[in-house]
Amino acid sequence: MLDLPTGPAAVAVLRAALESQTHAAPLAPIPTLSPRVSEDYRARLVAAVAPDQPADPACDVILTTSGSTAHPKGVMHSRAAIEHSARALHERLGGPGHWLCALPLHTSAGFMTVARAVVAGAEATGVASLGAALAFTPAVFASGVAELPPGRAYTSLVPEMAHRLVGDAAGLAALQRFDAVLLGGQAIPATLLAALDAAGVRAVTSYGMTETCGGCVYDGIPLPGVTLSIEAGTVRVTGPVVMLGYRGQSAPSTDAADRTFLTNDLGAIAADGRLTVHGRTDDIEIVNGVNVSMTAVEALLRGLGINAVACSVGDRVIAATASAIGPDEAEAAAARAKQALSVRIDFRVVPQTPTTPAGKPDRAALAAALRDAR
């Protein structure tokens, strides 16, 4: 296991480990305790890595899933898979470049920002907020950008980070430094993409998961070597970026051509090969006897100009938002949801919605907080 400190030092630690790694043992980055990483969460990540169990000779890296919908799993990858992902993405973006690392490095999204720089022989620079050493703010992000060397540069963010930056003059100027800004990890509001485009920021939507070395589909088009198919409405990914298997749960598949992963995402593929993701099979809750996708609820609200995180509490769906909602707007949105999804939505204005250590909305924690507040 590789203990990652908080702050930018984590980038240097991970980079050194990647550059010096031999095949003697797989590399498994694990965060140290911090305001965002509790003892319980760290213990669950360590259990997923299973450091006391024999290592598989084909495995070079073990990354842990977020555990936002279930217990974390240890995902086994070969170095060849990581290198293929990195090179294919750089080719898609227009060439190798330096990376600003703003996402947790023990997650696939954060880990791959460092790995891409290592594969390209470029620089990886961490923002001061890594590991919750500081709060992520436009000023913190801009300071990290100022540390980047000249040349092509990329970064990867979740939509909430980009939303904070685009609404701040210094943050927006920092975003304009990049040749591409990857956005993924959750649904991306069309209004955010429009704002970035209007400011001249090249935003590239990213789709993927820990099991596929992070992003493997960009702006709806898979990377070279990656093929997509739909099975009973669910997205399947096949190709060299797919994991060897889960630690302790499945026999590794060393033939890259045979590696395939059936996701939990509901989607469709257009005639031009472009993927559209509609939601997840594991975010569906039964509310008053009706199957309701929380992703679908959030997408419907975004279409009405309301950014919210949805969860079920008892017999209701509650949409939590940081913005005040007038009674007429709330009633119109509730009526639209009732018509489209056969469910009633109640709104709650909260100072901040909880997130996982990976930066994704934590619906379970939100539901628990709302129950406690009743």
Written account of the structure:
This protein is of the alpha/beta class. It folds into two domains: 276 residues, ANL, N-terminal domain (Rossmann fold, 3-Layer(aba) Sandwich); 86 residues, ANL, C-terminal domain (GMP Synthetase, Chain A, domain 3), CATH 3.30.300. 32% of the residues lie in helices and 26% in strands. The chain is built from eleven helices and 21 strands. The protein has a seven-stranded mixed sheet. Helix 9 crosses helix 10. It is globular. The termini are far apart.
Key phrases:
Rossmann fold, 2 domains, 21 strands, seven-stranded mixed sheet, alpha/beta, single chain, GMP Synthetase, Chain A, domain 3, 374 residues
Overview in brief:
With 374 residues, the protein is α/β, with parallel strands linked by helices.
Helix count, per DSSP? 11
What is the total tally of β strands? 21
Class from secondary-structure proportions: alpha/beta
Task: State the end-to-end distance.
Answer: 42 Å
Just give the CATH class of the largest domain.
Alpha Beta
**SS strand fraction:** 25-35%
The chain-level mean pLDDT equals 91
- Rg, please? 20 Å
The global form is: globular
Which architecture of the largest domain would the CATH scheme give at its second level?
Answer: 3-Layer(aba) Sandwich
Q: Main sheet: which strands, in order across?
A: 6-5-7-8-9-10-11
Helix content: 25-40%
Q: How many distinct domains? A: 2
